[in-house]
Amino acid sequence: MTGTGIIAYVKIPKINTTLPIYHGTDDAILQVAVGHIPGTSLPVGSKGIHAVISGHRGLLSAKLFTDIDRLVDGDTFMI
C-alpha cells in the first residue's frame, strides 16, 4: 500500500485503461477510481484469493469502466 491510499491498480490493455484501486467503496472513491469491497481478499497477487472490486461506468465526470463492454472472452486484465 502506498501513502496515497492506493492499494493496487487494475490494468485492462484492450481498452487502454489503468485505474487505481482504493480500499472501500464510498461515493468519493467510486467517483474517481475503483473500490475494493471490504470483507473480500486483498488483491495481493496470491493464487486462490477472491478479491472483489467495484467501479462505475458511464459517469460524465470520469471514464473509469465506461468501455468495459468492448471486452470479449479471452481478453485479459491485471491487478
TrEMBL record:
Annotated Gene3D superfamilies: Sortase (2.40.260.10)
Organism domain of life: Bacteria
Pfam families reported for this sequence: Sortase (PF04203)
Annotated InterPro entries: Sortase, Sortase_dom-sf
GO molecular function: hydrolase activity
Keyword field: Hydrolase
Name used for this protein in its record: C-type sortase
